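Exercise: predict the fold of this chain.
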Amino acid sequence: MPATARSERRELGWPSPVLLWSIVIGVPVALVPANVWPLLLRGLGVPIASVAEGIFLLVFLWWAAGGGPPLTTRVARSTAFRTVTLAPSQWAWSLLAAIGFAVAVHAAIVLLFRLMPFPAEAFRQGYDFSFIPTRPLQWLAVVMSAASAGVCEETGFRGYMQRPIELRHGPSPAIVVSSLLFMLLHLTKGWALIGMVPIVLGAGALLGLLAWASGSLIPGIIGHTLMDVGLFGFWWTGIAGDFTARPIQETGVDGLFLAACVTLTIALCIIWFAIRRLLLLSPRTT
């Protein structure tokens, strides 16, 4: 295709092959491996399933980062996975952003359910861990569920989907696309209320920013896993307790609501500052 025709396609906003292929490849990479854990959990029980899932995730990470066959895709897989070595200072700021991300998501959910009643039944649908006999084993299942989601979704959405679009079109459209697909695919869940939409979209955008600014998927995997440990343990299964606070329309603005506002603000400021530092440590030309 002549250069002028390609330019016109971009100006018209038509999807490019890179965009389409990033979505076609990224979604299965995110979702198919993530469904191995539920099958293992139901079929083998928590202890054996956890060992099997741990081995599977390590092999999956090795392959996604460019290991194993086919040889013809090794470079592409390594590039999509953002295989880099971070300096100690980059690790420090990346981990700070990852922790701030997990805190921000939970603070946002607390604020949401101080503005409306917490629909526990919708959130607990499909997350019944009552078949697991003891609380320690339930927590082990929570951690493995979180690790599975963190590894697979970050590899698919922020790696195999976002990275190729970054290289072709720059970070802004790449983060927008990966965040929108991340949100849309999570709207199939029973807890996908209208109020959760901006939280899920914002979480995807923050994870996309962290992957781009750090140049690595590992900080996002850590932050995603930390977030999901809290989501699975408290909001989804209730093994960590129940959210009983009533909406502020009934109680008025109280200490819990103000604390959640302050926590969310501080966490977002930490993320913003950490990402700024990461960009200074590894300046981008885009």
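Check your answer against the key: Residues 8 and 14 are 9 Å apart (CA to CA).
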